[in-house]
Design goal:
Strand order of the largest sheet: 1-4
Number of domains: 1
Keywords: Cell membrane, Membrane, Transmembrane, Transmembrane helix, Transport
Subcellular location: Cell membrane
Helix content: 55-70%
Largest sheet: 2 strands, antiparallel
Strand content: under 5%
Main location: membrane
GO molecular function: purine nucleobase transmembrane transporter activity
Structural class: mainly alpha
Distance between the termini: 55 Å
Number of helices: 19
Number of strands: 4
Family: Belongs to the nucleobase:cation symporter-2 (NCS2) (TC 2.A.40) family. Azg-like subfamily.
Shape: globular
Length: 434
């Protein structure tokens, strides 16, 4: 083990890697409850999604640890799960089985692009400012969903949205959970989101807002059946060949691209693994991410991607793929705790969505706002996502306006041919969108 993972060479040991794996797991364990909560809105079986989430995270993380040897942990991505549920299924009216087939298709395309080397060309064709705008827009979108799920923001016929009843016990529980998680994170506690959820559950039980477990069976049980979701992506793969699903698949693909590339660079840099400004074994890491998405789709969950919370494990000394292996083991162990889904309510998970949104919105600072031809498409991308309740719509609007503003500015030669192709695709998307 020491030889395979180069522990001595990296200045680490098995004990340190174990602690790092546990730390990363705790920092992102919230996804085990948030993901089923979001995807169950589509009619998917919550228990099956819980199991699929844990398995996809474990399999993807094992790939990353054993093959790529990076201390990076994977799980179904925040933002993409919301896009899957609220835009694709609920918004477009596409069956969740077909949406899963779209995730599977994006994973297969990701594998092909990674193995062929085309992935780098595609990523490089998209301007850095638009990538930053997509990340920030998704952050605002996720936060908005969290505010709605927690009852803090509600429908208002006069102003479209308005402030909810903050005297309501359930809304107060959301606010309490948000305050607790913010305090913990501000104090430097990496697993602040997860601990905040636990404290919210306890307080909710005290005030009768959340049912109290009556026995050990309400906490630990057998692994939930995957039958309701397993293989549906394969069965319905023939339903993805429409323009609408093409845009959906492209969105899955783009966001996974950005998430993976950004996370790998951030984690590898913090761990001191970047050499000569290059990521060693980058191809293997990208393959692990793509394989995880494909596996997750087959089991029954939205796109699986690398998590920035992996930096929590690196922060306590994790340097090798063994960190990821230990984290994967914890996700497998979590399979036996599905009964907790009954006590982790929307009010408990809402603060996690809001805080993740805050973290993703940090990319706003790096956008070149002083260049109008860049500011316009970037701003419209960011604004359209929460207001249209669709990540795809935000990306489409931004990718349409970018060539327009750049051409008018006399910078047509700076636009990559792929961007012109996407311009046409997204124009057709709006023309034929029902």
């Amino acid at each position: 083990m020491n030889k395979y993972f180069h522990l001595e060479e990296l200045g680490t040991n098995i004990k340190t890697e174990f602690v790092a794996g546990l730390t990363t797991f705790l920092a992102m364990a919230y996804i085990l409850f948030v993901n089923p909560s979001i995807l169950s809105e589509t009619g998917m079986d919550q228990g099956a999604v819980f199991a699929a989430t844990a398995i996809a995270a474990a399999v993807g993380t094992l790939f990353m640890g054993i093959i790529a040897k990076y201390p990076v942990v994977l799980a179904p991505g925040m933002g993409l799960n919301a896009f899957f549920a609220y835009t694709v299924v609920i918004g477009y009216g596409i069956p969740w089985e077909t949406a899963l087939a779209g995730v599977l298709a994006s994973g297969i395309i990701f594998i092909f692009l990674t193995l062929s080397g085309l992935r780098e060309k595609i990523i490089n064709s998209i301007p850095a400012n638009l990538k930053l705008a997509v990340g920030a827009g998704i952050g605002l979108y996720i936060a908005f969903i969290g505010l709605v799920n927690g009852g803090i923001v509600v429908n208002n016929d006069a102003t479209l949205v308005g402030l909810g009843d903050i005297t309501s016990p359930n809304v107060l529980l959301t606010v309490f959970g948000l305050v607790v998680a913010v305090i913990l994170l501000a104090k430097g506690i990496k697993a602040g989101i997860f601990y905040g959820m636990i404290i919210s559950v306890i307080v909710g039980m005290i005030f009768g807002l959340i049912p109290v477990p009556k026995g050990i069976s309400d906490i630990v049980s057998g692994v939930p059946s995957l039958a309701p979701t397993f293989g549906q992506a394969i069965i319905h793969f023939g339903d993805i060949f429409t323009l609408e699903m093409l845009v959906v698949i492209l969105t899955f693909l783009f966001v996974d691209f950005f998430d993976t590339a950004g996370t790998l660079v951030a984690v590898a840099t913090q761990a001191g693994l970047v050499k000569d400004n290059k990521l060693p074994r980058a191809g293997k890491a990208l393959f692990a991410d793509a394989a995880a998405t494909t596996t997750g789709a087959v089991f029954g969950t939205s796109t699986t991607t690398s998590y920035i919370e992996s930096t929590a494990g690196v922060g306590v000394g994790g340097r090798s793929g063994l960190t990821a292996v230990f984290a994967a083991c914890f996700f497998l162990l979590a399979l036996f705790f599905s009964p907790l889904l009954g006590i982790v309510t929307a009010e408990v998970t809402a603060p996690a969505l809001i805080i993740v949104g805050v973290m993703m919105a940090s990319s706003l600072k790096d956008i070149e706002w002083d260049q109008f031809e860049i500011a316009v498409p970037a701003f419209l991308t960011i604004l359209a996502m929460p207001l249209s309740y669709s990540i795809a719509t935000g990306i489409a609007i931004g990718f349409i306006f970018y060539p327009i503003t750049m051409i008018v500015k006399g910078k047509a030669k700076e636009i990559h041919p792929i961007m012109y192709g996407l311009f046409v695709v997204f124009i057709l998307y709006f023309i034929f969108l029902k």
